[in-house]
């Protein structure tokens, strides 16, 4: 029997005779090895991605968004963060737009929440609401008591659309019973947007700070041309004459407003006149918008004709 001559792994020639020769060492292979302690000084960089945001090192969070959503044992202070407030604000605009988008022509009526039901201001508010409803306008108020309730009542009793835009206050106010469409808001600025966006004008009855707030905000929007064709009517000359005198004798005389700014509002004691002012301005605004649309259409047609002529002329040129 022949002896086994297969080399053991420790003997020369143990490798496969057909294996390639060892690769010559490159410069990179000849770099000295780094001490082990240095390797531990620089841990691998960990990144976390949250949408467009990249987090590294200590900013990396130890839980995922899904985990935080499903874990009901976490803190609740996030309810009061600015990020969550932005979502609530967005929701208020969405709800307001959705509720009022198909309202049609409307007027916003302002006045004191403290007017008793047997007062002259309350009776005036009822008549204003009734007359605007009869003219085909929805009536928008703050939804509270006093003059707001009166205007809602007049619109409701006349068969019109009665809208209340309530606001969260430290004291309970609630929506009055004459409101057909009610929307409650946490934030004044979202509520104010609805008053202006869905109304063709403001009618302002005697009131306090809140009434003056709405009045002067409307005047600023008209003055700065943020809104156009937007009449502001002050109803009750005896109440408003002192304010107007101060605007003229103090604000105007010191150069803080222009003479034309005093024409941004009108004063009357007649609810029927208030309706005529708003309806007339609305009709003029509609005519102006139609005129602008006609001019834009004519300009577009003229531009297309010029473009066609220019293209025809280019085609007629040699090599065109």
Assign a percent range to the helix content.
Answer: 40-55%
Q: Look at the structure and give the CATH class of the domain at 88-287.
A: Alpha Beta
Q: From the 3D structure, determine the CATH topology of the domain at 88-287.
A: Rossmann fold
Give the CA-based shape.
Answer: extended
Structural class: alpha/beta
Termini, distance in Å?
Answer: 99 Å
Number of strands: 9
Oligomer: single chain
CATH architecture label name of the domain at 88-287: 3-Layer(aba) Sandwich
Helix and strand element order: HEEHHEHEHEEHEHEHEH
Give the count of helical stretches: 9
Provide the fold topology.
Blueprint lengths: L35 H6 L5 E4 L2 E4 L8 H6 L11 H19 L5 E5 L9 H15 L3 E4 L5 H11 L4 E6 L13 E5 L2 H10 L4 E3 L4 H15 L8 E4 L1 H16 L13 E3 L2 H46 L4
Parallel strand pairs: 3-4, 3-7, 4-5, 5-6, 7-8, 8-9
Antiparallel strand pairs: 1-2
Helix pairs in contact: 4-5, 4-9
